[in-house]
Amino acid sequence: MSYRILLAEDEQIVREGFDFLLDWDRLGCKIVKKVKDGNEAIEFLRSNPDKIDIVITDINMPILLDGNDLPGGLAVAKYIKDTLPRVQTVILTAYDNFSFAQNAIRFDVVDFVLKSDIDIFLPKAIEKAISEIESRNKDVLELEKAAMAVKKKKQENQYLLCMRSEALGVVSDSITSEDGRFLVLALEVNDSESGSGDCNCIRGDVQETFRSDTTIITFLSPRSCCILFFGSFKFADIRKQVIALRENLFSKAMLLLCASSHEVKNSDKISEATRSALDRLHTIRQDANWFLTNPLPLLKARTKTIAELTKARDYIEFKDLIDEYLAYDIGFPTLRLDMVKLVSALSDRYPSVQGKTDDQFISDIQYSQTRYRLRHIVCEYAYNHFRIAAPVVSTDNLLVKEALAYIKHNYTKPINLSMVANQLNVSDSYLGRTFKNEIGESLLHVLNELRIQFALLLLKNPSVKIFEVSSKSGFSDPNYFAHVFYRHTGMSPKEYQKKNTL
């Protein structure tokens, strides 16, 4: 930055020679205007108040025409003090005069330089003037920052009062209307079904997640709060913050209920946005730990993806897809119906587990009361089913289909070929032969494959006993179970348990 200098000097030879007197570039300065007397100096400053930073003026110039009895240079200094306090003044004189120096001090002159020592002391005076400018600029900046902080605090207090008054149903004064971007998030935390969460300790988690210069948080209770986002914010970032908080609280056995308003464009709409967020929150209370904002997706549009995931048994992607779907603002009855359809589609391909029939899973869905419970049921179903390799069958043989359906629902029981045949009212030999011809594997092989797949799942638990796994998997003899298990996996149940405990 070059500091701009106005030179007032009545001697032409001195005035013209000033360009070569000092190394102005080194000093960070540039002479932008030269005048011959105080009248011209004041007139230029009056017309160009923002174009000069430093004035260098000879003290003993002609007296001003307005009748001021001060020497021209001091008159300029007085004008600057009275009207342009940010401009710094340096006085030049051809002789040492104590009374002039006193007046110079009175008019806040930076320095008083003798022309005989100008090459020595003027650079120091210029540096002193620059230091004063920088110090003053710093002070002004600090004052502006302080003023902005006060204004911002006042503005934020208005926003806070508006949001809190609406949340508590209290009438408040209207706030100053300002254009901008505003969005209100309403949060509430409930105990999970385990009941082990401490919902009275969420303040720190919420503040740590959302604290910024463009958010205002007000707690309505130990369990609930409203958050105002204003200025520059991205909805995708807010969603990520919500998800992070949700996972954090979920790890502490707490459920996050969350709803947002739509974005509004003026501060006088903050109350409306707050009411919208709270109303939406109330509609999902005890119904979700999800972020309800985006438009409703079509489950049909996800059908292909779900089918591909089920075929690949990709539980993680499946769960993420369910999470994504449940995050949309969908009526709960519709959600339940969609999840029943999904489980029904899965049930055609994957067998039941833990003795729980598909009808029982569907019944659990129909009687679920919260999104959390609904998610738990569907994900449990998928988690268990994706890990059991149900036979992929393409057959039109009704007998084989009925045999597979019976096996799927009863493989954890001590059933065998004779029991299945008796259930279907056919002979053992006929069923066995037909099944083998259609599937390419014996009924016993398919039955044991399902049992072993389920046993693999049970053995993830390090505390379960091998004989318990044998019994729960449908084997009546633990030794036979160990034999079949080794044939399918190449290791004993105990070895598998040690290597694969959760």
Give an overview of the whole structure.
One of its GO terms (biological process) is phosphorelay signal transduction system. This is Response regulator containing CheY-like receiver domain and AraC-type DNA-binding domain. GO terms for molecular function: DNA-binding transcription factor activity; sequence-specific DNA binding. It comes from Sphaerochaeta pleomorpha (strain ATCC BAA-1885 / DSM 22778 / Grapes). Pfam families: HTH_18, Response_reg. This protein has about 500 residues and is an alpha/beta fold. The protein has 4 domains: about 5-140, Response regulator (Rossmann fold, 3-Layer(aba) Sandwich), CATH 3.40.50.2300; about 175-285, Reverse transcriptase/Diguanylate cyclase domain (Alpha-Beta Plaits, 2-Layer Sandwich), CATH 3.30.70.270; about 300-385; about 400-500, Arc Repressor Mutant, subunit A (Orthogonal Bundle), CATH 1.10.10.60. About 55% of the residues lie in helices and about 15% in strands. The protein is built from 21 helices and 11 strands. The protein has helices at about 10-15, 25, 40-45, 70-85, 100-105, 120-170, 205-210, 235-250, 270-285, 300-310, 315-325, 330-345, 360-365, 370-385, 400-410, 415-425, 430-440, 445-460, 465-470, 480-490, 495-500; strands at about 5-10, 30-35, 55-60, 90-95, 110-115, 180-190, 215-220, 225-230, 255-260, 265, 290. It is rod-shaped and about 130 Å long. The chain starts with a strand and ends with a helix.
